[in-house]
Amino acid sequence: MSLLDDTIASIEPPDADAARGAGARLDALTKPPGSLGYLEEIVRRYAAIRHDPAARAGRGAITLFAGDHGIAAAGVSAYPQAVTVEMLRNIGAGGAAISVLARRMGFDLIVTDVGVAADTSAAPMTGVRYRRVGAGTRNFLEGPAMSLVQARSAIEVGIETAREASANGATLIGIGEMGIANSTPAAAILAALSGVAPARLAGRGTGVDDRGLGRKIAAIEAGLKIHRASFGHGVNLIAAIGGFEIAAMTGVCLGAAAARVPVVVDGFIATAAAAAAEKLRPGLREQMFFAHRSAEGGHALALEALGARAILDLEMRLGEGSGAALAMGVIQAALALFHEMATFASAGVSGKIE
Question: Whole-model pTM?
Answer without folding.
Answer: 0.97
